[in-house]
Each structure stands twice: as C-alpha cells, then as structure tokens.
C-alpha cells in the first residue's frame, strides 16, 4: 500500500483552497486522492505542513515526524523555502544544502521523494523582483538533484500558466483552488499518473486600480509586516492537519 506524507509550509498545507467548512484542501490532498484513484485501491496519507514555516524546521522537525510514522512512508513530497525568500538576506545556497540533506535522509530510509518548487507569485507582489531572483536561484540549484539522486522534481516555478492572476488568491501570495488543482495535475503526471494539469479560461485582462491596490496593501501587506515586526508567524501554535495516517479511498478523487 502506498503511504504518502507531505511536508512543507502553506503551499503544501493547502492555504487558498478553502472548502465550505473552512478547512484547507490543497494540491497535496488532491495528489493523495489522485494516487488512490490511479492505483484503484486505498492509500494512506499524512500532511504535516504548517503555514509560515521556514525550510529548516520543515527538513528537521517535520521530516523527523514523517520518517517516524508507523508504518513508515513509501513516498514523501517536499516543498519549502518560500518563506525564507521573503526574509532579508535569504541564503539560497543554505536552502539548497538543507534540501539536499533532507533528500539523502529520505533515500537512506528507503522513501521515494518528489521535490517541488513553489509557483512564482512575483509578478504581483511588492518587491517581487527579489522573490523572482531568489526563486530562480533556488529552483535552478535543486533542479540538478535528479541527475545525482533518484528523486522526482516538479518545476512549478517555471510553469508559465500558473503565473496568471486567475490561479492566485486575493493575497497574491497563495494559490487558489484552481492553482492547487494545477499543481496536483503536474505532480500526478510526474509520478506516472496521466492527469492533465488544470487550465482555467482566459478571462478578462487583469487591471490595477488605485483603490483596489490600497485595499490590498491594507488587508494583506500590512498584516504581514506587522507579524514580522512582532516576530510572529501565521503558523504559530498550529500543527499539521493530518499528523498520522488517514485512509484515502479511490472514490475521493471523484
């Protein structure tokens, strides 16, 4: 039986793909459902990702918990580094080294790894040019790992389709439901399941109005800056949503 565990930050937790009951779904949940449907039998799934987490606690605390699951995982997805890129002085070489050590730990434990880069939100973010530059550096560095290790790499950062505004939430930082569906399709295809990546209708061209921009800064940018000043994270006092194995049936993908 496939036992799939996901570790990461808000990207993997599923922030932005909010269900009617207020819970977050996201691409990792959709991948779990797609794996069960593709295999035609139940799988086990855990999701330890927590919004706001930097890469180091992802590849230490979360990875420790993932490898300690009983029975152990057979497949692990790793995505992280986006929150580090938003901090002053982000060190992409350090993030690359942390990622490599995590991959080695998983492979030594006999766990298959699927490594994802984050989608690129930089076009509509304040100081987006810094995010784009750091994202390019990290993505190019980790894209070399499949040539040295038996890992699956999904380069979402260079997916041009998902950069369109229609795949992003109002905060312009997190994917919406359509964005998470697209990432899930990219991952499932990379894992050998013939799932077409989700594509939305073109829709009207994006416009930027002064009042809308002012509201965006008030509702999304200023609260983020306030948390940084106070040394707080959106993930403080939170845990992963599935800390132990849950069973995902093939019908979950319907």
How is the CATH topology named? Answer: Rossmann fold
What CATH architecture label applies? 3-Layer(aba) Sandwich
List unreliable stretches of 5+ residues.
Answer: none
- The coarse silhouette is globular
Please give the number of β-strands. Answer: 6
What's the alpha carbon Rg, rounded to whole Å? 18 Å
- Count of alpha and pi helical runs: 8
Q: Report the average pLDDT across residues.
A: 90
Q: Which band does the percent of strand residues land in?
A: 5-15%
Topology pattern, helix = H, strand = E: EHHEHEHHEHEHHE
Distance between the termini: 20 Å
Model description:
The protein has 254 residues and is of the alpha/beta class. Helices cover 40% and strands 12% of the residues. The relative contact order is 0.19. Helix 6 (128-142) links the parallel strand 4 and strand 5 (151-154). Helix 3 packs parallel to helix 5. It is globular, with a radius of gyration of 18 Å. It has a single domain, classed as Rossmann fold. The mean pLDDT is 90. It is built from eight helices and six strands.
């Amino acid at each position: 039986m496939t036992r799939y565990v996901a570790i990461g930050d808000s990207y993997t937790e599923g922030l932005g793909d909010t269900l009617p009951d207020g819970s977050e779904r996201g691409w990792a949940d959709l991948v779990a459902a797609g794996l069960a449907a593709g295999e035609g039998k139940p799988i086990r799934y855990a999701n330890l990702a927590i919004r706001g987490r930097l890469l180091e606690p992802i590849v230490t605390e979360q990875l420790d918990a993932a490898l300690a699951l009983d029975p152990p995982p057979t497949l692990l997805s790793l995505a992280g580094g986006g929150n580090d890129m938003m901090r002053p002085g982000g060190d992409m070489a350090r993030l690359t080294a942390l990622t490599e050590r995590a991959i080695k730990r998983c492979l030594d434990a006999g766990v298959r790894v699927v490594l994802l880069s984050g989608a690129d939100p930089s076009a509509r973010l304040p100081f987006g040019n810094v995010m784009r530059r750091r994202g390019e550096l990290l993505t190019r560095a980790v894209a070399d790992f499949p040539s040295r290790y038996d890992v699956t790499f999904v380069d979402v950062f260079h997916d041009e389709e998902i950069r369109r505004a229609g795949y992003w939430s109002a905060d312009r930082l997190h994917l919406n439901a359509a964005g998470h569906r697209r990432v899930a399709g990219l991952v499932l295809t990379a894992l050998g399941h013939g799932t077409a990546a989700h594509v939305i209708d073109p829709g009207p061209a994006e416009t930027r109005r002064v009042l809308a921009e002012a509201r965006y800064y008030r509702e999304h940018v200023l609260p983020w800056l306030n948390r940084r000043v106070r040394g707080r994270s959106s993930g403080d006092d939170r845990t992963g949503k599935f800390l132990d194995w849950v069973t995902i049936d093939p019908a979950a993908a319907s």
